[in-house]
Amino acid sequence: MNESRPASMSSFWMPFTNNRDFKANPRLLVSAEGMYYKDVDGNTVLDGTAGLWCVPCGHNQQKIVAAVREMVGQLDFAPTFQMGHPAAFDLAEKLMDYTGHRFGHVFYTNSGSEAVDTALKMALAYHRARGEAGRTRLIGRERGYHGVGFGGISVGGIGGNRRTFGPLLPGVDHLPHTHNLEKNAYSRGEPEHGANLADELERIVALHDASTIAAVIVEPVAGSTGVLIPPKGYLKRLRELCTKHGILLIFDEVITGFGRLTTPFAFDYFDVIPDMVTCAKGLTNGMVPMGAVFTQQHIHDAFMDGPAGIELFHGYTYSGHPLACAAALATLEVFEEQKILDNAKAVQEYWTDAVHSLKGLPHVIDIRTIGLVAGIELAPIDGKPGARAFGAFKKAFADGVLIRTTGDIIALSPPLVLEKKHIDELFGKLATILKNLD
Ligand code: PMP
């Protein structure tokens, strides 16, 4: 393993990175174990973000490592078009168990973005298969993040992402976001105000007619745009309205899936069952790229029994890759054997109190928490949006803690195996950083 600095960093065009700034002052990780990364200089870095929200069981879980090693020596690749391999079927059954048999089927992808585009295409094809080809409109939400595919950025609600690429999919509307600093500041769990924002769906229906609308997609908790938590009753209302109008409801659980809210999925937490769920990240504990779409039985039935009699013409070379399936099967075992969700529940209150203890520190204008995720919003520097929080990110890394920022919001999402001592370390350092931040 190469643990030294690369000879040159000029050729790798890094994703979602200020490439010039990074290359002048790089942060290079060379190994990881449990709650910590190690950087190229031998410093330990406490992982406050589970990588990119994707390592719920902690780094380098040996059971998952062993499962991947064993599979790679046995079956390096197998197509899942017109053939298959046992692990892909075993995993599908286990995922149906893990989600309490609320879904009938699972479709494999390689990432969250692919899961989102798959779910959107399934929604369009579902209505066609049932003889409702006019249902083509898709509805997302402001400040929603649904990955980087053309479908995902079209339903996504991040202005910067959308503006960079010109016209996107036609026939897309956006519900308003639910963030309300005036009414819901410093919320713990679901904020009180804003369930009525779901009724905006009625406005869109009135405008276009329900018979033109295929699906609504939302993140139950919007993660990448700064931890926006749905107001009490909002998701239930959205479910009711979608059902009333024959519109499919898709939950994008790429971040919230696999324990982030201390329940297996956010739909468990909020007790709202969508027609489809997208997931990725924690599915393999981040070790091998994989995403998935869970569909209710009626979605699959429409293709099998519908008047059009079509199968879904869609899939990826690496759908259900053997290494990904092996990693995901082992991850589900780790969740069970190591009682990962029990630990998340056990530390959740201590975590929440620690996050909210930052209230009153310089620049902090809001804190919001749910499960083991937190958003800490800072007042922006005039004319330099995002600069203050990015400064905190750089200082934190230099001080040995990994945090994530989006605009001027610090988002925290640690591995679910964290202990009180890690919480103390994380917030001790963060408090000092905030006190000394420009
Ligand atoms: N949906 C959501 C809600 C996400 O948070 C992300 C990634 N952060 C994605 C989709 C895209 O996933 P990926 O980066 O694996 O394509």
TrEMBL record:
Belongs to the class-III pyridoxal-phosphate-dependent aminotransferase family. Pfam families: Aminotran_3. PANTHER family: ADENOSYLMETHIONINE-8-AMINO-7-OXONONANOATE AMINOTRANSFERASE, BETA-ALANINE--PYRUVATE AMINOTRANSFERASE. SUPFAM superfamilies: PLP-dependent transferases (SSF53383). Gene3D superfamilies: Aspartate Aminotransferase, domain 1, Type I PLP-dependent aspartate aminotransferase-like (Major domain). It comes from the Bacteria. The keyword Transit peptide does not apply. This is Aspartate aminotransferase family protein. The keyword Transferase applies. Keywords: Aminotransferase, Pyridoxal phosphate, Transferase. GO terms for molecular function: transaminase activity.
